[in-house]
Amino acid sequence: MASTPNLRIIVDGDHLQVYRRGDRVTGRVILVTTEKEDVRSLTVSFKGRCTTRTSRPFYETGTDADAYQPRREFEETVPLFAFDQKLLSECTLAPKKYCWTFDFKFPELTEPKFPRWHHGPKYHREPHPLPPTFQTQTHVPGGNVIITYFVQVRLERNGYRSPVSIQEPLAYHPTPHDMTLDAKIASRVLYAQTWKPLADGRTAMDKVFRRLSRRACSGTSAPRIVPTFHYPERISPGQHIPLLLSLTNSQDGSITEDPTQKQCMLDSVTVTMTTHTTSVCGQPTSQPEDVMLKHVLCLSKTNLNTPIPFGTRTSLTNNFRLVDDAECVPSFKTYTVTRRYDLTVAVGIKYGDRTFRIRCTTLLDILPRIPQELLPALQEGEDAAVDPLPLYVPRDPSKESAPDYDSLYSLSRVPSGSASSAYTRSGSVSSSVASSAVSTPSTELEQPSFPESSSRTRWSMPL
């Protein structure tokens, strides 16, 4: 039986390295043959690939041709890019160890271009920046999404022998084009959630008398509160997410004319983040799409009782940051997969004994994490914001010795009855047990203090 050649890929650098836009991928291809091999071709390739899988019920009403198969599986693989380097072609190799080098570079954009009607409007059809390495399971049986980058070596031999192929996966993470350190704040005026706190408990007759009284005298008008939510549209992992709320009283005269006007109070804050992941696969005539939603409660605070002055931005969070972990995948959109995030903030406010709840949902674009080596200014700013630790000063070892516990506390035998023996705790000064020399100065020793009524406590145990 013919032996199979030993084929290996060795990528330079750390095997846990995360590549970014423009990074080079270099390494070696090693082939060891134990007998003469008639080679058709040996090719090393650098590829990016997006694979989606799903399933749908297969049985149709009125036919039982394939009723035994409960579901129909769909799968689609879209190449993001592909670079090939041919190492050998139509040759015969003697039993020996061979080695070749390769050198590739991560491109900035994908390569394929699809028609306008392909995959619908939610997905890219033109070349776009590379998505990150990504893998997740869908809620459909057998459904998953895989975005992978790898170096592949394929050896094809003449005759009826099967080809030999191996892959070496590579981790890729995009690099943000904008290295902004501070998040840009956007504002949204919530006119649909305008609140009239004094009008909630009025009857129709009260409202009529109220309007008549306004005509008769120039009294103070009831407040009409319009909330405005301030939030960042784009954020990076580990970056502070500022969330602010400002209230505007459209009845401006009520503030100036009534000095005893009540003030709104911040009662509760709840922040929830929703992840939307969609994938599509199949033929143009049948493209089943899977939508995965995941809600994460990020923050929940109650009974705050924080005043909210009118016309002033009030911070809802303090040092609220996005955790940089495996779940924090940057927002992206490619040919068959999309990933986006929503941020929902619910704020409870009080005006006197009345309460009102403000709710706002915004689209949050999570940017790729910023490499530390690309942000020296950020590191300097963080170091400056933290109080530096004091410099280490060597101390005299003689002053750092631990106290001699034998001299502080000891168990000494006290004579008792013939049927029992007793032990008592005694101080270091009156200890009857011989101990080692005291290593702690006498001024630093702490003598135990006992109440006057019971100077010592005795425990007895039977022999």
TrEMBL record:
Organism listed in the record: Lentithecium fluviatile CBS 122367
Name this protein carries in UniProt: Arrestin-like N-terminal domain-containing protein
Signal peptide span: none
Alphabetized CDD domains for the sequence: ART10-like
Record Pfam families: Arrestin_N (PF00339)
Region feature Disordered, mapped onto this chain: 388-407, 413-463
Lineage, highest ranks first: Eukaryota, Fungi, Dikarya, Ascomycota, Pezizomycotina
Low complexity biased stretches: 416-443
Biased composition (Polar residues): 444-463
InterPro entries the record matches: Arrestin-like_C, Arrestin-like_N, Ig_E-set
Domain Arrestin-like N-terminal residues, every copy: 10-158
